[in-house]
């Protein structure tokens, strides 16, 4: 409740419109990161906000990146931001509505009924970036954020506020233990139409989270209330939103800017901990990612990362060094 009140108070202090000035406050990450909360019209759960986080490159740089996080996630990857800044990018991230910094007391964490609800969040932050002097912009999405960024890019063809798209293990097909892989889609969709708010277990393997967090087997520190090892229950409305979005990808997306799709070289489906979790995608089937990515109509490249985890920038250091070299080599050729 206190967090919700605080965010609503901050939201009152900043402008709710995309072309307005926003007021930044110190972010929870410190180290030069700032955040601003943006208010949107209420939805089926009530009040709605998103949060923009930024850290600017030294000097007057115009090249920028906007990062969109995945499911059961929020922006915490400081190293990624600093690598982009070192490369000469201003770094921006958005905590989407109902995630992380943007999660309010009246909301179910992570819930959404249609992925297009996130388009207002991305439009708003891109407009803020432009108003703050950003020139070429790289739109970057991980997992669910990669699916959202892809649909957004398709919807904004010819009206883009970005110049290239980077997809880190995009959520183009249901995760390995999704209910959509276990039950007929018609049953799920019928339940979603009648009772979108009802929930069921997400089915995500908690060992993936444990492979990341420093208090388990990993090396990263983040808020376990916002990114728990075991994702909270998902609603039938959310499942339908994912199904509808992935069907759009299967039908083909028209993206008018260069796209780089990165994914791990192999997947892992294990119920007991082992070091193998550090070298594979334990959430999605990487063959599905590569197959579905070929439905992009436009200029795209698909690359597998040897030894990569689901979030490639959280892989072991040698692997993520290769990931950044791949990203920046591609970006130098495609972002002018």
From TrEMBL:
UniProt signal peptide: 1-20
Coiled coil residues, start to end: none
InterPro entries: AB_hydrolase_fold, Hydrolase_4, MAG_DAG_Lipase
Keywords: Hydrolase, Signal
A molecular-function term among this protein's GO annotations: hydrolase activity
Domain of life: Bacteria
Keyword Signal: yes
Stretches assigned to the Serine aminopeptidase S33 domain: 61-266
Protein name: Alpha/beta hydrolase
Gene source species: Dyadobacter sediminis
């Amino acid at each position: 409740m206190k967090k919700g009140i605080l965010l609503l108070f901050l939201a009152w202090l900043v402008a709710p419109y995309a072309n307005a000035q926003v007021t930044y406050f110190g972010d929870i990450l410190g180290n030069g990161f700032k955040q601003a909360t943006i208010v949107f019209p209420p939805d089926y759960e009530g009040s709605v906000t998103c949060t923009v986080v930024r850290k600017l490159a030294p000097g007057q740089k115009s090249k920028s990146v906007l990062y969109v996080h995945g499911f059961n996630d929020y922006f915490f990857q400081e190293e990624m931001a600093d690598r982009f800044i070192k490369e000469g990018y201003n770094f921006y991230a958005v905590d989407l509505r109902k995630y992380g910094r943007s999660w309010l007391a009246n909301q179910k964490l992570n819930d959404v009924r249609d992925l297009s609800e996130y388009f207002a969040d991305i439009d708003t932050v891109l407009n803020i970036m432009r108003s703050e002097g950003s020139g070429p912009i790289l739109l970057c999405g991980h997992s669910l954020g990669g699916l959202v960024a892809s649909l957004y890019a398709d919807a904004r063809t010819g009206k883009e506020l970005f110049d290239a798209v980077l997809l880190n293990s995009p959520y183009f097909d249901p995760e390995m233990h999704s209910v959509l892989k276990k039950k007929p889609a018609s049953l799920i969709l019928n339940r979603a139409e009648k009772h979108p708010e009802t929930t069921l277990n997400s089915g995500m393997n908690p060992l993936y989270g444990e492979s990341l967090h420093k208090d388990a087997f990993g090396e990263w520190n983040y808020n376990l209330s916002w990114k728990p090892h075991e994702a909270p229950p998902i609603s039938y409305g959310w499942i339908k939103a994912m199904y509808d979005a992935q069907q759009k990808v299967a039908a083909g997306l028209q993206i008018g800017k260069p796209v780089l799709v990165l994914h791990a070289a192999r997947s892992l489906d294990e119920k007991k901990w082992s070091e193998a979790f550090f070298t594979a995608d334990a959430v999605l089937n990487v063959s599905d990612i590569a197959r579905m990515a070929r439905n992009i109509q436009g200029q795209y490249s698909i690359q597998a990362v040897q030894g990569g985890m689901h979030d490639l920038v959280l892989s072991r250091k040698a692997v993520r060094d290769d990931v950044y070299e791949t990203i920046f080599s591609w970006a130098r050729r495609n972002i002018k």
